[in-house]
Target: GNAT family N-acetyltransferase
Amino acid sequence: MNNVVQANITDLDKVVYIDSEVIGNTSRRRIVKNAIDEKRCLIVKEMNDIVGFLIYDTHFFECSFISLIIVSPSKRRKGYASQLIDYMMSHSPTTKVFSSTNRSNERMKLVFEKKGFSQSGIIENLDEGDPEIIYYKTR
Model:
């Protein structure tokens, strides 16, 4: 059974491990810990094993902004990112929800489009030659 719940501090090491599988290091441990402490980190489980997470905040013009959606590489293409987004959309503290991904990230762009997000803008100069596409949806 798959489910999404709010992360708690006992989930920290597993969430950081999943993040490190993707980025190759544990440099975001403090970011993950702060999100868990502030109840802004969601996890998705397969059976009782954490397979992905989502972190958001409400500092983007007082709207929810999904800053990270990470799924363990061995668990991708099974709908876990979509489950995290669905949960976020139904529990968002704000009506407007934004997120972003690099123009080169075809998989994430497809997830956003499938989940009903619309493109809302582009930010240049974050990653050289790979603009960030902003996505938007209301609940």
